[in-house]
Write a structure and sequence with these properties.
The chain is mostly helical and 323 residues long. A hairpin with a 4-residue loop joins strand 1 and strand 2. Helix 3 runs antiparallel to helix 5. The longest helix has 34 residues.
C-alpha cells in the first residue's frame, strides 16, 4: 500500500476527516449538505438555461454570469459527491492521485471564478464610465477570449501545486483536516522541507486572487468617481446594477480570506474551525450566487416567474378533473 524511499513514503491514500466529535451524526449532517448541493446544481443550471434561451440576456454581464454558474457547478461537483459518500457510507480514504486531481480542480476553478469576477467588474466599469463604447469593447469575440484566458490562467498557475506535492515524502499522519484535498492541508503532512510549496502557493494566491481583488477594488473606485458626478436618480440606477456583482465578490473573497488566515496562522486552533471555514468557502458561494442574481436581476427574476407560471399551468391542465 505504500512506496518507501530514503526519507519516508508516498501514501496510497489519505484519510479524510468529517466533523470531530460528531461521527455518529455524519449521516444527518450529510442531509443539509446534499440539499445545498442539489440547490447549487439546480440554481446554477437554471441561470445558465435562462441566459441561453432568452435573447435579451445575451449581453456581456449575463454571459459572464453564465460562466460563473458553470464554474460553481464544477467546484461543487468536484468535492460534494465524495463528501456525501464519506458521510453516508464512512468511506474515508481518497487515493493519492485522486487527491491531487481534486486539489488541482479546487484551486484552478477558484482562480477561474476570480478571473470571471474581475471580468464582470470590468463590464460594470465600462457600462457606467464609458457606456457608448460598451458594445464595441465587450464584443462576443472578446468575451470568448476572456473565458479562454480564465481557463488557461487558472490551469497554468495552479498546475505546479500537485507537482510540488508529488515530490514530497510523507511519513506523518495521513489524516487531512478537511473532507477534501487542498494544497495547504496536504502540504502539512509531508516530512520534508515544504518551503517551495509555501512560497509558490502564496505567490499563486497573490498573483491571481490578490491581483484580481486589487483590480476589482480599483474598478469600483473609478465607478464611484463617475457616479458622484451624476444626479441622485442616475447614480442610484447605476449603483443598483452593481449590487449583485458586489455581493458575489464578497461571497467569494470573504471566505477565501478567512480560510487563508486559518491555514497560515491557525495551527493551534480547533480542527472544527478549519473544517467550517473550508466548507463555507467551497459550498456557500455556489448556493448564494443564484439566489443573489435571481433576486437583484429583474430580467432573470421575471423569466424564472414566467417559467414557474408555465409549469404551474401545465400541471393544472394535466391534473384538472374531467367533468
Amino acid at each position: 500500500m505504500t512506496t518507501f524511499n530514503e526519507s519516508g513514503y508516498d501514501p496510497a491514500a489519505f484519510i479524510l476527516i468529517g466533523f470531530p466529535g460528531m461521527e455518529t451524526s455524519h449521516a444527518w449532517i450529510a442531509i443539509p449538505l446534499c440539499c445545498m448541493y442539489i440547490f447549487a446544481i439546480l440554481g446554477n443550471c437554471a441561470i445558465m438555461y435562462i441566459i441561453k434561451v432568452e435573447p435579451s440576456l445575451h449581453e456581456p454581464m449575463y454571459l459572464f454570469l453564465a460562466m460563473l454558474a458553470a464554474i460553481d457547478i464544477l467546484i461543487s461537483t468536484s468535492t460534494m459527491p465524495k463528501i456525501l459518500i464519506f458521510l453516508w457510507f464512512n468511506v474515508k480514504e481518497i487515493s493519492f492521485n485522486g487527491c491531487l486531481v481534486q486539489m488541482f480542480l479546487i484551486h484552478s476553478l477558484s482562480a477561474m471564478e476570480s478571473t470571471v469576477l474581475l471580468a464582470m467588474a470590468f463590464d460594470r466599469y465600462i457600462a457606467i464610465c464609458n457606456p457608448l463604447r460598451h458594445s464595441s469593447i465587450l464584443t462576443n469575440e472578446r468575451i470568448a477570449f476572456i473565458a479562454l484566458a480564465s481557463i488557461i490562467r487558472g490551469s497554468m498557475v495552479f498546475t505546479p501545486l500537485p507537482v510540488l506535492i508529488k515530490r514530497l515524502p510523507f511519513c506523518r499522519s495521513k489524516v487531512l483536516f478537511h473532507s477534501y484535498c487542498v494544497h495547504q492541508d496536504v502540504m502539512k503532512l509531508a516530512c520534508a522541507d515544504t518551503t517551495p510549496n509555501i512560497v509558490y502557493g502564496l505567490a499563486a494566491i497573490l498573483f491571481v486572487m490578490g491581483v484580481d481583488a486589487l483590480l476589482i477594488s480599483l474598478s469600483y473606485v473609478m465607478i464611484l468617481k463617475t457616479v458622484c458626478g451624476l444626479s441622485r436618480k442616475q447614480s442610484w440606477k447605476a449603483l443598483n446594477t452593481c449590487i449583485s456583482h458586489v455581493s458575489a465578490v464578497l461571497i467569494f473573497y470573504i471566505p477565501l480570506i478567512g480560510l487563508s488566515v486559518v491555514h497560515r496562522f491557525g495551527d493551534h486552533s480547533s480542527p472544527t474551525i478549519h473544517i467550517v471555514m473550508g466548507d463555507i468557502y467551497l459550498f456557500v458561494p455556489p448556493v448564494l450566487n443564484p439566489i443573489v442574481y435571481s433576486i437583484k436581476t429583474k430580467k432573470i427574476r421575471r423569466k424564472i416567474m414566467n417559467l414557474y407560471q408555465q409549469r404551474r399551468y401545465i400541471c393544472f391542465r394535466r391534473f384538472k378533473p374531467i367533468r
